[in-house]
Amino acid sequence: MSALPLLIIMKSVIAFLVKWLLIFAVASVMIFGVVRLMPSTPVEQWLTSFNLPHTEENVAKVTALMGLDRPLPVQYFAWMRNFFTGDWGLSLISHVSIRDTFIQKLPYSVSIGLSGILISAVLAFFLGYRAALHIGGVCDRLSAALAVFSQSIPSFITSVFIIYFLGVKLKAVKFFTGSVRNAMISAILITAVYQLGGLSRVVRNAFREEMGKSYVRFAISRGFSREYVLFRHASRPVLCTLIGAVIANFAWVFGGSTVLEFAFTIPGVSYFLVDSMQSSDYTVLQTYLLVVVIWMFCVHAVLNLVLYALDVRRRA
Fold it and tell me: Nearest CA to 186 among 223, 218, 158?
């Protein structure tokens, strides 16, 4: 590799890191501020849970115990320092370790979202490919139907239907007793189906766009079949388009699995999060949101490397 392309790559990496450092700085400040704009405070929730009067003395004492009496800048920088040293603190209400709880529960939430998106991305590529080849055909209509289905019917309704039909009516699957394997498989498949329609339409449109380009028409004019030319030569730019669409969906990994975790009683991080929202637990909420920002940084970093590997023009 010559010096010029290497210099361009280094500039791109530095620009990417600087951009995300700025995003992280702004996001952390916004997260810290927004959670404190909630209608109630953890002090009020704590006093209410123990049926204690909200007197000035009680409020001041509990506020000091929670460390919320310090100036906001001091609280912010202490939170940042502790977060990056591995000390995520304790829940203000339940006093459980936030880091230990996240480590225990995050694999369930991440597995649902990550597996569902990866499955849907693979299926979307082939479904969109077939849909682009035969406009108005079975695959084209199926991808359109899935896209409409995912936009019109909430995943919670689908979950309830599956639980009733397979678990109650047919008694073929046990969702709420024993292992969570059946619940996890169902949640992953529902996630994949709800992502499949939109992603397959993205792939279908990308293939249709490539079909109008000169290199595709030239290859077909030389006697190669349209199926071969699209799959062999047009797949890389289409994959780049698909990955670009998938990047945005990865933010759904955490938040989007909440409904499914509740429907199938999966012990993911969503239960912990919802309880924390009800009790206005600042430390849990701000840590959760910051983890989402870090997760999106990792996703963008990995998938941008994949995009670079696929896009030959960037390496020319």
Answer: 158
